[in-house]
User: Fold this.
Amino acid sequence: MTRTPASPPPRADAFLTAALPVGLVGSTIIGDLHQEFAEIEGRRGVLIARAWYWLQTLELAARYTWRSLRGVETPYQRLLTPHSTLPRSEGREEIMTTLIGDLRYGARLLFKNPTLSLVSIFTMALGIGLTVFTFSMVYGTVMRGLPIPDDERLVSVHTDNPERNVRQTAPSYADLLDYRELSTAFEFLGGVNWATVNLASDEDAPERYQGASVTADVLANLGVPPLLGRVFVEGEDDLDSPPLMVLSHHVWRQRFESSPDIVGRSVRANGTQTEIIGVMPEGFRFPFDHDLWINMRLDPDALPRRSLLVSPVGRVKPGISFLAATAELRAITARAEATEPDEPGGYRPLVMLFEHNSMPPQITAIMWLMLAAVFGVLLIACANVANLLLARAALRSREVAVRTALGASRFRVVRQLLAETAILATVGGTIGLVAAKFSITAWAASIADIQKPYWIDIRLDLPSILFAVAVVACTAFFAGTIPALRATGRGMASVLQDEGRSGTSFRLGRLSSALVIGEVAISCALLIAAGLMIKSIVSVNAIELGFRSDDIVSGRVGLFATDYPERANREQFFADLVERLREAPGVRSAAMMTSLPGIDAATWPVGIEGESYETDGDYPFVTGAVIGTEFFSTFDVEMLRGREFNVSEMGAGADPVVVVNDSFKRKYFADGPAIGERIRIGRSGTENPYMQVVGVVPDLHVTGGVGGIGSDSLPPEQIYVSQGIFDVRFLMFAVRSELGVEETVRGMRAVVAELDPNLPVYDVRTVPQALDEHTWAFSLFGELFSVMGFAALFLAAVGLYGVMAFSVTSRQRELGVRMALGAGGNDVLSLILRKGAIQLGIGMAIGLGLGALMARPMRFVTYGVEASDPTVYAAIIVTLAATGLIATLVPARRAARVDPATALRNE
Amino acid sequence: MAPKNYLGEFEQMLLLAILRKGKGAFAVEVRRELADRAGRTVTRGAFYTTLDRLHAKGYLTWTTRAVEDWRGGRPQRHFEVTAEGVDQLQRSHAALTNLWRGLSDFETRA
Assistant:
């Protein structure tokens, strides 16, 4: 019987080769193993033999590694022959062997002192893990940038009009055409508008996508070539060009199953036959989180100059500043306004970095603040490890002195100490990195559903890992250098002299105190940030909505001009829809509206009949929504005065009516009942009709902005306008039902499908869900700052405890003498406590100042809490003082119980 | 002057096993001898590090020989107890024998 014998696992051999002594001996041992492997394999099969082989390998490797660690000579031996080291392997660079010797010796010391090492490693892991996590987040959000070439020159153009109190709106299409023709500052300047696109085909259900309507030059000039087919070419944004579409990779994959012959196929988009001409590569979702692109076909003369708005996107030429580009566009605008005196003027375009569109500078500021905060935590961690090592360095000062006396250079001794911190930081850093990796994955999953710019991608990639390595190196350096220099900085004679008597002479005092004060200060500042955040979360959760949100499910439909050409068609559809919804099984009430109460309200300038306004800037702003009948009863809002709208007030031509809230009534109709007064939306020259106030409702809570950020700036005055006044194409509906959410949703979809099978229902969710989505930013930043604050508190407490405990131990003799001379336990207790309290006090005073500084930029992400909230500051002072005192009290009590005889005998 | 260091129990067993296998005993054989004769199975790591230690003390030497393929082409060590090693063994043995003398009551178990 012949067979080829199996060979032992090669990886095990590689492992062994690394662990066993170099040269013949190692080779023969592996040979022995191979020999026995062959026998076992023959007797019991290859699986068992392999398992056996691995067991032997691990045991051997562990044994030899352990031996080589223990086998390092003692420092005294080494000092006698400063440059000889174990292992005595020939041919290695001397410096290398010395370094390895340092590391081995360091590792051995760390094994000898496991508690200290574990505390240090845990501290470093916490500090490094948090830092890497935060860095990855900040990097993915604001540093990595767009996956588009030259994105630092990619800009968008907004326009302000101080006279009309307009901020950062899009310029008009006519302006854009002027800019394109006259400006010399741009490589290209195109237009982008967001467009909702319903895709339908004969076989599939209609689906709604976030599309972008773009001028022909946008996709062609961004610098990202299509994966399939082509992008729009010049002339395809003319009014008479056919409707065309470019798909994103994921729509191509999901809706069209990655069909290779997609190019040239025709689909129905918003009711129009549209040809698909290309597919963009994976990950391209420009400008925000878009699914597909259609060619913009606008008629610049169809509407008054200021009515058709388009967001310009372009790339400035190299070397042209945004300021210069802005100046040029302003000159062009001014010239155009001068030629059209009838049109409203005073518009001031502004060129800004494209990225700032969706990442407001406030968010960026918070991101950087978070990174700064986490560096604070890292600093505390470093200070802690430095303190622990300092304490040990004090105990080892004699060893160091002996080594110096025997001829070791200061550099040599410092390097030895640094090697130890390098080991601590590497182990801690590895643990921290693994923890960060898991946290980042979990974090990314938890925010996957939030609408955010497509280039935000939070993951642990190369930059984060490089950053982690740099952090570990710096941590080792800072945590190691201070104790190392400190330990070697003294004259050896003095150490050797008094070492015989006591371990106390090494003065940890000032340096250690400074580190503790620094720690307390930083954690105090971080805790203030965390406190403000926590209070802000509490405020968000405690918001009095003013309306009922449970049992209510909402959805949205949008009608397109192709299917519903006349206003009357659209009004009829909405009227039918709400009526049928109300008749659906289980439904108690239903209403139509442009936005749910509490969310995404519009802001309008209004004029009150009888008031005079000198300039357009004097018109007050209100938040508002367009609503139908039974809106307030659906959300269980009691009318304070008057009534809701009735059916006869819906639709074009009906009497224009409005409901105002209590704040509005108090501000503008303080003396009267408000009912019967007339207001209108818009400023001077508006053609909007005056609307009669028919009801007054309590204030309903409203959030807005990005994830609720900026809600505080919304005006508290609210108006609700009847559906008849504006021609709306998109409406939300809310249904309160006795049935469960799923059944209600099914019922809603059935009603819509009955009316128009091609119409998708989107944004389907319960009102509480919708509200949560709009307050995520508070919880997001709140959680992060809280984690950092408590990590800092914990680390500072550990640090304080460590220093106090060490100081008590090293002062044992002094305390013993004091007690022998008559000091009582309480005297000793207060002596130690006083020292701790002073450090705590100074640290907190500095920390409160730092915290107040940090609190200012945090206003943007807090809700319902002042930067100087006294309860937050008081709570932090109490928490920190209590933690600090406990950390001091434990060692102080131990000191007070010392038996003087024992203390003195120990010497 | 009395010798300071006696051989440890396992060191003695190892040296004896090598002597039993005769000149040029190799590791696998020695391990098997220990298991068969003394019922002593030790971990591989302990086995090799003890061999190294005895070698460092000068109680055994080894030579290598290139052998067949089934060792992955790796050489084999053949061990031999040195005169010093034998001397140490004898001393340990003598010390034990001396201690046993007169304790025949306890000597019953093999």
Summary: Residues 63 and 78 of chain B are 5 Å apart (CA to CA). The first strand of chain B starts at residue 25 and ends at 26. Chain B touches chain A at residues 26-28, 43-46, 48-49, 52, 64, 67, 70-72, 74-77 (CB under 8 Å). Chain B has a mean pLDDT of 83.
